[in-house]
Write a structure and sequence with these properties.
Chain A is mainly alpha-helical and about 200 residues long. Chain A has 9 helices and no strands. Chain A binds a DNA duplex (30 and 30 nucleotides) through helix 1 and helix 3.
Chain lengths: ~200, ~200
DNA sequence: CCCAATTTGGACTTGACGGTCCAGTTGCGT
DNA sequence: ACGCAACTGGACCGTCAAGTCCAAATTGGG
């Protein structure tokens, strides 16, 4: 996977980055099926051979973009993700996501989750990449909850892994409803419920 | 929307039904972008002009299929949806969905929810149709919860609409995780959390 | 049974897209 | 500054998909 030419020169690296960047934008804007290589060409000013120089084919590019997108999502949430080991930290995280949807006017949903519905069923490599992205995300919360449990802030019979999974489901579902209904409040409702469920594990 | 020739003869109606049926299958199998009119032709033995006789264009067909799919999903859940006014009824509903995913080997996700990620962002008519479908679904739960509240099984300060929305989010998110991870247990975890949240409103 | 409306068959047009190929240019180590 | 590898430009090809068009067949009411 992604076993394509790793650029040897600085110029090559820059070109590869430009392509990935544009492809990521287009994937978010027009969906997986809607992004054409000509679109990418137009946006980057790159030529056809550049695309095929740095990526095996279209699918390879899409897979690479999934990884880049995951990095972007996790990066955007920044250090919030490192403080999911307190109720206040978790609340800040939830608030951030809702605020982000308000700013986006409820468009776009989750960049990773949206791709799931588009690619999971028919492209197993992409499904694996999306799964890995979701895992990385969920791991931050799970690890935070484990730390809370160690500190005695979670009951000893609480299951951090399951709590993290249930929370991810509320996030993804809440974002989906937000996207379809163009209403950020849908995410708020889902996250309030997720919070209630987490709190059931509190000491 | 869908203002296409309503068939005047029995034969015409049958043809239109065949087309819708095949298109619904293909949409579920290959995704919204993956379904081509030629696929539909091949599966129904219909000719090109039949497609354009009964539907304005591809988008019109897709929109019609969304409605048909909603009917199918609600129909499959049958009378379970009429008994969401007791904890036992809700549990039966949850169990049914998990069981269904086990039988499907965690493939396909939610037929409606999957379409959301594919169409919501770039086809506002489709988004409206999907939203209507989700609303119809959610309404069953909301109405059940309202009946429970009337009967005093839900606290007087409980918000049936919000509880129903949060539950829908857990369902959709749980199905998404199930699909990506090919593991029906993901839905189980999400629904357990949803159940916990609902129970917080119990008297 | 006849005719007008409905339905059907399928050739054709147009355009987009993924992918290949090769020749030309640039960058970099020696 | 030389030469090889890395990089780039863009013409070209095959395929496939959406949509148009018109003529033929079928249907059903009067």
């Amino acid at each position: 996977m992604g076993n394509t030419h790793v650029p040897a020169t600085a110029k090559g690296r820059a070109t590869r980055e430009r392509i990935l960047q544009a492809a990521a934008e287009l994937l978010a804007e027009k969906g997986a099926a809607g992004m054409s290589l000509d679109d990418v060409r137009a946006r980057t000013g790159a030529s056809r051979s550049q695309l095929y120089h740095y990526f095996d084919d279209r699918d390879d590019l899409v897979r690479a973009v999934i990884d880049v997108t995951t990095d972007a999502v996790l990066g955007r949430q920044g250090e919030l993700l490192d403080h999911l080991d307190s109720w206040a930290g978790i609340d800040r995280w939830f608030d951030f996501m809702v605020q982000h949807q308000i700013e986006q006017q409820a468009r776009g949903g989750c960049p990773i989750g949206s791709l799931a519905g588009q690619l999971a069923e028919n492209d197993s490599a992409a499904r694996a990449a999306i799964g890995a992205g979701l895992d990385r995300w969920e791991a931050h919360l799970r690890d935070g909850l484990i730390r809370m449990k160690t500190r005695g802030k979670l009951r000893s019979d609480a299951d951090p892994a399951a709590l993290a999974t249930a929370t991810m489901a509320s996030i993804q579902g809440g974002l989906l409803l937000t996207q379809v209904r163009r209403d950020p409040h849908q995410l708020r409702i889902a996250l309030n419920a997720a919070r209630n469920n987490l709190r059931l594990g509190a000491t």
